[in-house]
Design a protein that fits this description.
This protein has 443 residues and is of the alpha/beta class. It folds into three domains: 84 residues, SRP54, nucleotide-binding domain (Four Helix Bundle (Hemerythrin (Met), subunit A)), CATH 1.20.120.140; 189 residues, 3-Layer(aba) Sandwich (Rossmann fold), CATH 3.40.50; 146 residues, 434 Repressor (Amino-terminal Domain) (Orthogonal Bundle). 60% of the residues lie in helices and 9% in strands. The protein is built from 22 helices and eight strands. It has an eight-stranded mixed beta sheet with strand order 3-2-4-1-5-6-7-8, with helices on both faces. Strand 5, helix 10 and strand 6 form a beta-alpha-beta unit. It is globular, with a radius of gyration of 24 Å. The structure holds guanosine-5'-diphosphate. The site of guanosine-5'-diphosphate (GDP) has 18 residues, from helix 6.
Length: 443
């Protein structure tokens, strides 16, 4: 996701960096290009204009232009504004007191039923909640059956189907069952509609009235771009949405819907559907997404993903190190190993700082693993001391390391820069007192 935007913006900021000292005109020119890049990514025009209006005075200020690192400052301002646009922080589900009814609404084919089952599975496995799901789609018995089958696959309970009941009756029966059964969460999969249709909208509103849901989640198809945003607007006007699940984000290179959704509807994206499998639902983190778009590397996601496949002992050792804010070359080497092991290179590569721009070329040539092996060769060419304390590595050492692995000094520099970005992010994480990403994994 966001691949094309990432490469466009990468180019803009590279040009800016190349200029060293900046004038107002330089920044103005760069922002024009940012504007075009956002429009090409299918971001809603009003959102783009707002964005540029917000960024411009900050980025063209004296403080930035006269600063030591003006281009980095501009990138940071764009980064922070992107986060604002996407919603300041990741907002989980408001579950409140059990059983928490959650209403799932959306057009037919958006991935609503699949997302309901995905959410049920996620709440059950990651949050240890007991989940009951019920389909309210009385018009399409196949839809009810589909939820039942998905529930069986996911190991999530579904309400027994009784033909002939109205959606409100089913919803009330589901709520009663959830109470009696001691469930924490009740997912209500409302009837899909082909387009915004008053009758079905009224039906969902009636269910909403009868169940007083803690969350009303719209499921929308990311691939439909601005249509998805307009659909969200229409739903929101009729019943306040508390969150959005964007499906098919796995196939959406532009990401316009994701980028516009929050600004246009006010409702935050809570999850992204990243594939057809029931496990393919990811919490949405605005900060990580903004970093990924600007190719600043999504270190936290990367580390989290890597740890999921690490063995427990290694994960604990790594967590201890990270708590201290430390991340040396040995850790980077281990991370690279994990990446190789995990196979899912495409997604992982996008998380590494600086890799985004060359990713397309790598994809074409199928070079992913080779790149990692080369990076590891550079690390292997370092002495033990250097690996433990990369700050030691001066110009002379860089030359020796490059020679040792048959690569250029620029390759060594690139690796050192990547390491620095990751180490800094981890240090910042520690300073900010952010939750340890490993905590959840270690129970
Ligand atoms: P509904 O009519 O809105 O309930 O849609 P379904 O849940 O039946 O989904 C329609 C199709 O989209 C199914 O084939 C799903 O497997 C697929 N689908 C749902 N979510 C995603 C996703 O995040 N990514 C991909 N690639 N396919 C998805």
């Amino acid at each position: 996701m966001f691949d094309s935007l990432q490469s466009r913006l990468g180019g803009v900021f590279d040009r800016l960096r190349g200029r060293g000292a900046l004038t107002e005109a330089d920044v103005d020119e760069a922002l024009k290009e940012v504007r075009t890049a956002l429009i090409e990514a299918d971001v809603e025009l009003g959102v783009v204009e707002d964005f540029v209006k917000r960024v411009k005075p900050k980025a063209e200020g004296e403080a930035v232009i006269r600063s030591v690192s003006p281009s980095q400052q501009v990138v940071k301002i764009v980064h922070d504004s992107l986060i604002e646009m996407l919603g300041t922080e990741s907002t989980g589900l408001n579950l409140g007191s059990p059983p928490a009814p959650i209403l799932m609404v959306g057009l037919q084919g958006s991935g609503k039923t699949t997302s309901t089952a995905k959410l049920g599975l996620l709440l059950q496995t990651k949050e240890k909640k007991r989940v009951l799901m019920a389909s309210l789609d009385v018009n399409r018995p196949a839809a009810m059956e589909q939820l039942k089958v998905l529930g069986e696959q996911a190991g999530v309970a579904t309400l027994p189907i009784i033909p002939g009941q109205t959606p409100v009756t089913i919803a009330k029966r589901a709520l009663a069952s959830a109470k009696v059964g001691g469930y924490d969460v009740l997912l209500l999969d409302t009837a899909g509609r082909q387009h915004i249709d008053e009758e079905l909208m009224a039906e969902a509103a009636a269910v909403r009235e009868a169940t007083n849901p803690h969350e009303t989640i719209l499921v929308a198809d990311s691939l439909t771009g601005q249509d998805a945003v307009n659909i969200a607007k229409s739903f929101h006007a009729r019943m306040p949405l508390t969150g959005i699940i964007l499906t098919r984000a796995d196939g959406d290179a532009r990401g316009g819907a994701a980028l516009s959704m929050r600004a246009v509807t006010g409702a935050p994206i809570k999850f992204l559907g990243m594939g057809e499998k029931l496990e393919a639902l990811e919490p949405f983190h605005p900060e990580r997404v903004a970093s990924r778009i600007l190719d600043m590397g999504d270190v936290v996601s990367l580390v989290e993903k890597a740890t999921e496949t690490l063995d427990k002992e290694k994960a604990e050792a790594m967590a201890k190190k990270l708590k201290k804010g430390a991340f040396d070359m040995n850790d980077l080497f281990d991370q690279l190993n994990q990446m190789k092991k995990m196979g899912g290179m495409q997604g992982l590569l996008g998380m590494l700082p600086g890799v985004g721009k060359i990713k397309d070329k790598l994809d074409e040539a199928g070079l992913d693993d080779k790149v990692i092996t080369r990076q590891q060769a550079i690390i292997q060419s370092m002495t033990k001391k250097e690996r433990a304390d990369p700050d030691l590595i001066d110009g002379k050492r860089r030359k020796r390391i490059a020679k040792g692995c048959g690569m250029e000094v620029s390759d060594v520099n690139k690796l050192l820069k990547m390491h620095r970005t990751m180490a800094d992010a981890i240090k910042a994480m520690k300073k900010g007192g952010r939750a340890n990403p490993f905590a959840a994994l270690m129970g």
